Amino acid sequence: MPHLSTDVLVIGAGGAGMYAAIAAARGGASVILLDKGQVGRGGATIMAQMTVAVALGQQEPDSVALHLEDTLRAGRGLCNEELAALVCADGPKRIVEMESWGTRWARENGHIKQEMAPGHSVKRCCYVDFLNTGPAVAATLRRKVSQLPAIRRVSNLAAVEVLTRDNRAIGAVALNLLDGALVTIQANAVVLAAGGLTKLFERNSASANMGGEAYALALWAGAELIDMEFVQFFPIGHLAPRLVGMDPIMWDPFRYKLGGKLLNGNFEEFINRYGSTDFGQYNATRDIAAYAILKETEAGRGTPHGGAYLDFRHIPEAQLRGAFGPVVDRLLANGIDLTRTPVEVGPMAHYHMGGVRVDVNMQACVEGLYAAGEAVGGANGANRLSGNAITEAFVFGARAGSVAAEKAQRAAAGWDESLADESRQRLEQFCGNSRSDGATPVALQAELQTLMWKQVGPFRTGDKLAAALARIEHMQKEDLTRLHIGAARRFNLDLHDAFELRAMLATAEGVVRSALARGESRGAHQREDFPNTDALCLKNQVVELEAGELLTRWVAPVRLDRSAPSHG
Amino acid sequence: MADSPNRTARLRISRGLPGGERHYENFDVPYEDGMSVLDALRWIRANADSTLAIRYSCINANACKTCMALVNGEVEYTCTAKLTPGIITVEPLPKRPLIRDLVTDVIPDDEKV
């Protein structure tokens, strides 16, 4: 079995992973940065066309304390305040650092330009024109990574297990897609930066490669997860006509700026039926907009693709072009002429608030195991403030990388080749038990995505969640043992999908069990059978694996010590 | 969509390993206006033949830039290449070492195990 060795292993090479690798290398450690796709090309960061929220105070007066206040309000009382405070306090440093590394933030009058975004008290959100924030920051980080000789990048390597001994992370096993072989990687510290779980849902706004593996790897290694019931659904993601080259959540700012109308399948305004005002006011919160769209669809008044129309036809063409800039041409290239055609929009899975439970140094309860970016749970509580996702990718990445580097250079992990036996046997079982009458992993993934969307989507009930759990358990116990796997060694996506499916199922189970246990509606978790927020549920849920069973339990939210000196 | 019932696109796909026998296989894919070639390749994997080797990451944002192949003889991102009803030939990039089917080696040597 091929074997690699390093001080710090970073799993996932999106924004958080690349930042972690850079920070670890700058801290003097050797680093292996791996990605199941191509390093620096996968994950959520590169797809983000929107903004980054940081209290730079360059556009108008702002403070870390005010950013934190907005973040905690959005989190509906469930934020880990220490983590949220870290995001807000270190965000400005990371933005300035990124600029020094070459990111060209939009500027005006000699300062970084900052815009308003929903939920923020002041103009706080910086960006790269036009809708190019994610690709631009990914390019900066790729370049920085490539300039540091201490970082070894490995592409097409999918981590399938984090290895531990005596509750200490000592490396990982990964599947090399290029030849279908397993690789062991010995490391003194491991950073999980493999992003969120949006791939679990049929309708999602992210890359194909975030099936919740960071969470599953953490659980299997003995770490705890937190807030797994809180999946953020973006209310007006793009459904149709088919649109390529654009972020599916791109419409929101244009809708506010230009006055786009939300109409049901009969071309009627409908938000007002749900207690809010749309056109001209836009006071419908994200959850109400999502609810209204799904209810209209249930009542048979949806659009052909099961959503609502977003209509800009009443806006003069010159005004459209002024607001959209070159984006108008990209839309035209997709056959979308906003002066003639409304687009179809609807809720889709966008981000996961939950994740690996870590302390303020990003360390999980397993020694030497860290998390960064969306893989981290807790900072955003029940709902994430817009613009905070890339901020946390940078901040948590930087913190995790530097702490892991320090840890890795203090103590070497012991190594034992036999630790990889379990993954080796699993690979042999997947291949050896392949059945021509079994389902393919990719077909089961599609079934799971439909199940999660229909039963564990934006509006949940106890019955639907219980049905989802039963099917997920059956897939784990039965379907996963009788897969149909192709025989090729090179780029065997069946094999890749089989390992990924196993992780997707473990993470899905964590989401469903947490959602079942939270008998209230709060933030992104909406229960139709428990429509109200319950003060008794002002607690976080922790998920852990004990003797093969996923268990949930309640814990008190982490609050800042208000008597301590300010973080600001 | 309602205006395009029962139309199909036929993908003629180059398959096989380097050095070995390469052949073309045809797959008929339900066609919908606006579909990309990558949509069709993903449909094939989910519904017809999961062993087809393809490379992609971001699905449709044209952000990851990893889904290139030869579409009707032209180098294209399969995520932005429009599918059309009728026959479309998809082949691996000709100037890159073949790994299998439509996947070529675009990874720099220092990014491998």
Report on the architecture of this protein.
The complex is a heterodimer of chains A (568) and B (113). Chain A has 568 residues and is α/β, with parallel strands linked by helices. Chain A is built from 14 helices and 21 strands. In chain A, α12 (441-455) packs antiparallel against α13 (462-477) and α12 packs parallel to α14. The radius of gyration of chain A is 23 Å and the shape is globular. The mean pLDDT of chain A is 93. In chain B, 10% of the residues lie in helices and 31% in strands. The longest helix of chain B has 11 residues, at 37-47. Chain B is mainly beta. In chain B, the strands form two sheets. Chain B has a five-stranded mixed β-sheet, with helices on one face. Chain B is globular. At the A-B interface, α4, β7, α12 and α14 of A face α1 of B.
List keywords for this structure.
heterodimer, A: 568 residues, alpha/beta, FAD/NAD(P)-binding domain, Flavocytochrome C3, Chain A, domain 1, Methane Monooxygenase Hydroxylase, Chain G, domain 1, 3 domains, seven-stranded mixed β-sheet, four-stranded antiparallel β-sheet, 18% strand, B: 113 residues, mainly beta, Ubiquitin-like (UB roll), five-stranded mixed β-sheet, two-stranded antiparallel ribbon, 7 strands, 10% helix, globular
